[in-house]
Design brief:
single chain, mainly alpha, HTH_MarR-typ, Arc Repressor Mutant, subunit A, MarR family transcriptional regulator, 154 residues, WH_DNA-bd_sf, WH-like_DNA-bd_sf
Length: 154
């Protein structure tokens, strides 16, 4: 196992550092996938969150899930709504927090962006590495869910 000058730090701190670095590299590599879409990072993040949600989320739920300020998510959601990519629906549980749902146009754009991203991913990683990528994604998902559960109890 590779060890650096900070080997005494908690493994979670090392994971945070690697995640930040990986996120930066992946964002620059996959920026080409949305090059012609006119979406900025925040809008892409919110569109992904809305399309991939199990049930329609609110702005606050997306903000908490993504670790982003509600105001940033709200601005992105407003831009997506104005662009016809998402719609805001009444929320029976909260009068002032509408539910966000993708429109047909939003779903089509998401599919197009995903197809472009798939091409980039295929060029980056040979098929032989896919199992390790799946395992890493599952491990990160498990850690995220544990952290989210812990944060909800605070």
């Amino acid at each position: 196992m590779e060890r650096g000058p900070f080997e005494s730090r908690h493994p979670l701190v090392g994971l945070v550092d690697e995640t930040i670095r990986l996120n930066s590299r992946l964002r620059s590599v996959f920026a080409a996938a949305r090059q012609d879409s006119s979406l900025n990072d925040s809008e892409q993040m919110v569109l992904n969150a809305v399309v991939e949600a199990g049930k329609a989320p609110t702005v606050a739920q997306i903000g908490r899930s993504m670790g982003q300020a509600r105001q940033l998510v709200q601005r992105a959601a407003n831009a997506l709504r104005d662009g016809g990519l998402i719609e805001m629906a009444d929320n029976p549980d909260h009068k002032r927090a509408p539910l966000l749902r993708p429109t047909a146009q939003g779903l089509a754009l998401k599919r197009e962006l995903d197809a472009r991203a798939d091409i980039i991913a295929e060029e980056l990683l040979p098929a032989a590495d896919l199992d390790s990528v799946r395992e890493a994604a599952q491990a990160l998902r498990a850690i995220r869910r544990k952290l989210e559960a812990q944060l909800r109890t605070r």
